Amino acid sequence: KAGVTQTPRYLIKTRGQQVTLSCSPISGHRSVSWYQQTPGQGLQFLFEYFSETQRNKGNFPGRFSGRQFSNSRSEMNVSTLELGDSALYLCASSPGWNTEAFFGQGTRLTVV
Amino acid sequence: DQQVKQNSPSLSVQEGRISILNCDYTNSMFDYFLWYKKYPAEGPTFLISISSIKDKNEDGRFTVFLNKSAKHLSLHIVPSQPGDSAVYFCAARGGTSGTYKYIFGTGTRLKVLA
Prior knowledge:
Chain A is mainly beta.
């Protein structure tokens, strides 16, 4: 069974630009969550989608948004990029109930 | 406000000895706790979990202990192996069915010395 796939693996953008990250969950998993990892901050929860609906949202500004498609694939968008958005963005999928989440390898975003 | 805290950013242990990683939380409503291991350039991988109705869960060399009164959990690795060197994150589940979310600590970097 294929794992969680995130694309691209690495990305360099300039301030003010916008970026879209993609996540393909494990087949059959309907829940996709997004996390931001920065040094010293651990994994900060961004949002979670289940069956195309956002079920949960973390404390991030509105520049961070996401969506989920009918095939459970998810995208995360960050608009008006700031230097502080440089981080590893991780996507995790799960069947959707009381189970651990399986993470992808992440997308390393660098904003210059 | 960090609801899940891992106060030790790093830990070094000799191969064969016990590694103890600690995690504290503030929200008594958390009902499920997990430990993840992360190698560089890889996503976190699930290690072991424990429900709040238990105080211990064991899986091979890994044991997680939960002290609800102290709002503290710990991961014991016995015996420690060089391949265990990684960053370990604890996570707590909050919310209600259908709106769960996981809150992670900042991680502890474990180095097992050969």
